[in-house]
Write a structure and sequence with these properties.
4-stranded parallel sheet, binds magnesium ion, Hypothetical Protein, Haloacid Dehalogenase-like Hydrolase, Chain: A, domain 2, Rossmann fold, globular, 4-stranded antiparallel sheet, 9 helices
Length: about 260
C-alpha cells in the first residue's frame, strides 16, 4: 500500500501553467482525506503552487485539516513548504538557493546559446515578462516568457528539438550545471544533483517514508526529461500524457467509478 502520491505539476496535474481543473481538485481532496500524503514537485515557484493547486483545492472545499497532508516541493524540491494548521498558513521547512554567481553564469550560458541558435525571441514577450527567471534554487528559461498563451507555447517546440539544441550549447558554455527540459517551452538549469532526486530524497527524509511507499506521476519520464531522475531512483512511476490520465489513475486508487459528484 502506497502512503505517498507524488506528482509532477505541469502536464501531469494541469494544462501547463494553468490552475488544476475542478475534477483534479476533487480527486486530490479525496486522496488527502484518504490519508495519502500528497506531494506535488515541480520546477515552479511557491506562488505558482498556490495559484495552480492550493487555491483550487480551497475553492473546492478543502479545509485546513485536509491541507496538513499536502506537502509542496517547490523548485524541484530544493524548497519545501508544509501547512501549519494552527497558524492557518504555509511554513517553509527548508530552502537551498543558488549563489548570485551561479545565477549569473547560467543566465549568460543559456542566453548566449539561445541567441546563437536564433531562439532568443525577446520581441515575442508580453510587457513586463522575461525569458530567464531566477527561481532561487534554479534558473529557468521560458522561450516565450511566463505570460505567453498556452497555444503559442505548445506550438513553439512540440518535439523538444529547439530546447535540445539550446541545452547542448549551454552545456558547452557552462558545463558545471545540469539543464533539463520541462513544461512546454522551458529549460531548468540547476547545480548537478539538484533535480527531482534531491527533492525525492528530502521528501523521504521529511515524511519518514521509503521509496516503496511512494507512487509518482509524471509526463516527462523519458531519458532527458525532468521526471526521469525519479524513474532512475527506482520509485514506482506512472507516465501520463495529460492530467486526464492522472485523473483516470486517481479514480482507480480511490475506487471511484464515474464522477465524484
Ligand atoms: Mg511535466
Amino acid at each position: 500500500m502506497k502512503k505517498v502520491l507524488s506528482f509532477d505539476v505541469d502536464q501531469t496535474l494541469n494544462v501547463a501553467k494553468t490552475p488544476i481543473t475542478d475534477d483534479i481538485a476533487d480527486l486530490l481532496i479525496g486522496c488527502l482525506r484518504a490519508d495519502f500524503a500528497i506531494c506535488p514537485i515541480s520546477g515552479q515557484k511557491f506562488d505558482q503552487f498556490l495559484i495552480q493547486i492550493v487555491d483550487c483545492l480551497t475553492r473546492r472545499g478543502a479545509k485546513p485539516e485536509d491541507l496538513k497532508n499536502l506537502h509542496l516541493f517547490v523548485a524541484q524540491g530544493t524548497q519545501y513548504y508544509r501547512y501549519d494548521v494552527a497558524k492557518k498558513d504555509w511554513q517553509q521547512v527548508y530552502s537551498y538557493p543558488l549563489t548570485d554567481e551561479q545565477v549569473e553564469k547560467i543566465t549568460d550560458a543559456i542566453r548566449s546559446a539561445a541567441e546563437e541558435l536564433g531562439y532568443w525571441e525577446e520581441d515575442k514577450l508580453q510587457p513586463g515578462d522575461e525569458i530567464i527567471e531566477n527561481r532561487l534554487s534554479q534558473v529557468t528559461f521560458s522561450a516565450l516568457g511566463q505570460k505567453a498563451g498556452t497555444k503559442e507555447k505548445y506550438a513553439w517546440d512540440p518535439d523538444h528539438k529547439k530546447r535540445e539544441q539550446i541545452v547542448k550549447r549551454a552545456k558547452e558554455l557552462a558545463p558545471e550545471f545540469d539543464y533539463e527540459i520541462g513544461g512546454t517551452t522551458s529549460i531548468n538549469a540547476i547545480t548537478p544533483g539538484m533535480n527531482k532526486v534531491f527533492g525525492m530524497t528530502h521528501l523521504m527524509e521529511e515524511l519518514n517514508v521509503k521509496k516503496e511507499d511512494i507512487l509518482y506521476f509524471g509526463d516527462m519520464t523519458q531519458p532527458g526529461g525532468n521526471d526521469y531522475p525519479v524513474v532512475q531512483m527506482g520509485i514506482d512511476t506512472i507516465t501520463v500524457r495529460t492530467h486526464e490520465d492522472t485523473a483516470f489513475a486517481l479514480r482507480g486508487i480511490l475506487g471511484i467509478t464515474g464522477n465524484l459528484a
